[in-house]
């Protein structure tokens, strides 16, 4: 019999599909275990060998937990809305729903290129996914629930007293009874105070506008990252070096009316929840930094000659007597109000320039110092001195209040700013309020100082000074103590087509929610996916996009009469909408009325193990935790946190290949012949290079038209040797290796074992196809324990002690490794095990049957085949994992080296429980000892039980 992976794997993948082997039950007597992979986006490029790394790890773990007797939910689906599909549709003239479907299911694109399809690629690798629960965020039967959750957010407010979200009706009841003076809510700033009578007297529209200031999702004019080239707003993590990550288009800051989510309401709970979950410290720290809790004070500075005030949040109110200037964000609403005519031109130029830099770029750039004086002055709360007001792009409009009270003696950025503009009109000299030297740098510590030249704060330290300053500010009614967070409300609108439609129509410009019973509001067809000529989002091109409040359905846009038929929202939801609750949808994927039933949610509770890339450290993981906490408040989610344990897999890197073109020619020189030559390195497709780094020159010449007449300077062996470099695996670097090719040549089990063998799961590691043949050889060697060229050779012979020792050593090692996610060392142990059993000539069923189970999580296809050939019925997937028996690892005998005057002459195997006297008696009577001594009596016999025997003299 021969190991034929293609035949074996196709057989068992078909068996699993037909028998629904991995379908999880929502009602089982077994304990539950929920293993989740981060939602993949199905691009046309398909999978390369780096993508399945986390999936293989989660699959090994899922299969192991099934062997342990758990009811395992291991689902898979697709985060199928998003900008990439829309951009591809715009470029190729295809519908994004068509390209998305082909990318998932396989088929042909517009140019006739065959697309393998994510589903087929995943199936080839033999994952134990419960495909009966597959979801796609772009399917209406999925996004109807996204729309429903949006409506729940709209109809909720955050009550600080109860510290949770509550229905908006509870807020209106308070308004009706006592007004809003005593409401303790997370809401917009500077809401006007009204009484119960005033509330009742307000028109319905006025009441709705007020409620928008409290709702958890609301419309507001917001500073956004606008990308004209893509025609949409981008999140911070979609921008790299000031341009869009996709396409490299310019991004500018501008104000737009947008839907926002009041995630800031959950800042403290998001922070505290990190203490309850098993995540890596680096990911937790990323979230803590993003949430950015600061304890300090709000301070109000009056502006000379203007009715407006500048509000500032500071963590150092103790340094208030060191303020020598103020800095506003260029986007701050007061800038245009207070700028004097003589500085207006410079201020406007600076605002335009800074709008072209992303917030992330502005935060990261600590070297560039720029700013402009507004000509305006603020008044110091205590000294009443005039303080010049500047603008600078190191201050962000969305962080704090968008204003900074600059204390250059105590802050490095303020110090640098003050020194850079030293001597200019509008920049006062640095004032030192510390008993420390600041001639070279600011003194930023909160310890080891006393304040000087600080009026009533002189002589105080940080804690005492902070307390006194806040008390004095409160007496002046110009400040108060406050906890602040860097976390800002999340913009929830996108000016693009391929996303979830909002279930919103507008009456007199005010948003109204469509009743949940009429969901989903299905994305309409449009002729083109670009914004309209007058700048409206792509849905502005839709001809059927209005809401009939009488018929409760979407109707033609030209029927809008603003009486019974109203315009629908033209923006769509962002990519993170559908991925913020998908793990709960998997629990009850076919429920048509709810995103999941209470019974299903109560049974699965939350995800036990979540595996995915650390690129989601802040965005997805924060948003999903926010939605989970909100749904918990509303009585839907059963737990506060969605993901108990999180593991980030490392990246598999590609080994790129380079050819070297002589500058200005079409001549290429081999790597080992290019010394002293002026060459240009160019990426070349790794499929043209063999394991000895030799380029297939003829293939290269036919690769591109420009290379058909290329000339080559070869080495002394007549070969063209390429250069090699480890880089990110990417189509643009031509270093992509597809799992399909590996599965075709070596089989999926080889791919799975090799990816786990490459190194620790959480570390980055380079891919080297040359190493995969060794793993393939291991699997063939494993098979030779079970069958030869013709027949099964497994016997019913009793196993030897060595057989049992090898098996149980492997059982223990593999179980421990899987529990600790040390998958690479398990593969090493399999190799050791098979080598030892081969040396022992072991073909005992008592050893080989449990061995098939132990290797099954890693190499499930061959394990299933061996299990079947051994005469067992059904799948190996649910068979109990072998129990480790420590007794087989306990050494009962020891092979002693027997030495004479320090020189080892022979070995003797003795029981380990013998005394020194018993050992000496046995050794002295041994014929080999008698021969060595030749009648002499040794002066001394040295015996260390379990280690050595040495006869001296």
Automatic annotation (TrEMBL):
It is found in: Cytoplasm. Residues 804-916 form the Methionyl/Valyl/Leucyl/Isoleucyl-tRNA synthetase anticodon-binding domain. ATP binds at residue 731. GO terms for molecular function: leucine-tRNA ligase activity. SUPFAM superfamilies: Anticodon-binding domain of a subclass of class I aminoacyl-tRNA synthetases (SSF47323), Nucleotidylyl transferase (SSF52374), ValRS/IleRS/LeuRS editing domain (SSF50677). Its main location: cytoplasm. It catalyses: tRNA(Leu) + L-leucine + ATP = L-leucyl-tRNA(Leu) + AMP + diphosphate. Residues 11-155, 723-754 form the Aminoacyl-tRNA synthetase class Ia domain. Belongs to the class-I aminoacyl-tRNA synthetase family. This is Leucine--tRNA ligase. It comes from Flavobacterium frigidarium. The lineage of its organism: Bacteria, Pseudomonadati, Bacteroidota, Flavobacteriia, Flavobacteriales. The gene is leuS.
